[in-house]
Amino acid sequence: MSWHGDKILIEDMSSSNGTFANGERIDRVLIRPGDEVQLGQAVLSWAEPKLKAFLKYASKGTVVVPPSMLGNMARSTVKIVGVLLATAGLLFIGVWNTEPGRNFLNYLRLQHAVATSDTDEEAFVRSTMVPQLRRALDPTEPVVRNTAVQLAARNEGTFRVEQVAAIWSHVRERWRYVNDPRGREYVAMPRESIQNQYAGDCDDFAVTLAAMVRSIGGEARVVFMEGARGGHAYAEACVREDATTVATKIARFYGRNWAQYARNRQHIAYRSSADCPVWLNLDWNASVPGGDYEPERWAVAAYADGRTEVLAVAPGAQPTPRARRASTATAPQRLSTRRQ
């Protein structure tokens, strides 16, 4: 926890049990003193003596939550764990500050990603792309949020698909493709892409869209895949309405231009999941939000909290053997808008 102006920045350092602020699991968020914060199953007590000094000197200082704040755990056990964690932390810092140490820790991270993944492709996404996504999909970054808010305000109100369409159209119309540095999978921070006047490669576009959607209260994920033209990435935004309603609203948003934008494919393409009825396709290769998916050999979704999910692929290419075993419930769908 550290002070940023009159707010407190809380960062979760990849904990297993998670950090929660005002009921939502977070990686990095700004809060005000007194907001509800939960560390795993333990509620953070703002009356904790060790926090009082931190709160008193609001202009500076950082605090790492000590075991004494976790009042619902046995104190003796917590002290032992605290000592072990502190020792491990010091060792980690010592190792991380050396090049061989960083290489070794990256190797361990890769091995863990491989061991806990369902497919080799998911292991690649977890080890290479997820660490970059966790930094990039920050909904509170000022440049990203301010830009997204200005665009979404044209369709003011709570989060809605029209706001997603407004953001997608603005970014897509201005985007210019520029490659990553040679030999590297580099994911630009969304503020970089915006400040570069909307330039970068496909994963930069996807991450920029996902971050902007998250910054106005939406949910988004980035899907990494391999198609006929090689590796690719695109964003999907969650819209919590039935597909027919979403299709109607998108067609109305574009009005007379819908047929022109959608061309001969007057439908929306999307995925569904147990917790989201419409994951709307925001691929930059499409001419509209909800445009067609490209043929896929495999597809892996990555979320801002570090989760990954192997998806059923869009048809048209020969899927990998493991991709064939993905749940068909995650396969892309289409819904016509011709009569909307």
- Going by helix content, strand content and strand pairing, the class is alpha+beta
Strand order, main sheet: write it out.
15-14-10-11-13-12-16
**Average predicted confidence as pLDDT:** 82
Q: Which overall shape is indicated by the principal axes computed on the Cα atoms?
A: globular
Number of domains: 2
The span between the termini is: 50 Å
Can you tell me the CATH topology of the largest domain? Answer: C8orf32 fold
Number of helices: 11
Question: Can you tell me about this structure?
Answer:
- There is one protein chain.
- Helix content is 38%, strand content 21%.
- The protein has 340 residues and is α+β, with helices and mostly antiparallel strands.
- It has two domains: 85 residues, no CATH class; 204 residues, C8orf32 fold (Roll), CATH 3.10.620.
- The strands form four sheets. Strands 15-14-10-11-13-12-16 form a seven-stranded antiparallel beta sheet. Strands 4-3-6-7 form a four-stranded antiparallel beta sheet, with no helix packed on it.
- β8, α7 and β9 form a beta-alpha-beta unit.
- α3 crosses α4.
- The longest helix has 22 residues.
- It is globular and about 65 Å long.
- The protein starts with a strand and ends with a strand.
Features:
single chain, four-stranded antiparallel beta sheet, 11 helices, globular, 340 residues, 16 strands
Compact description:
With 340 residues, the chain is an alpha+beta fold. It is built from eleven helices and 16 strands.
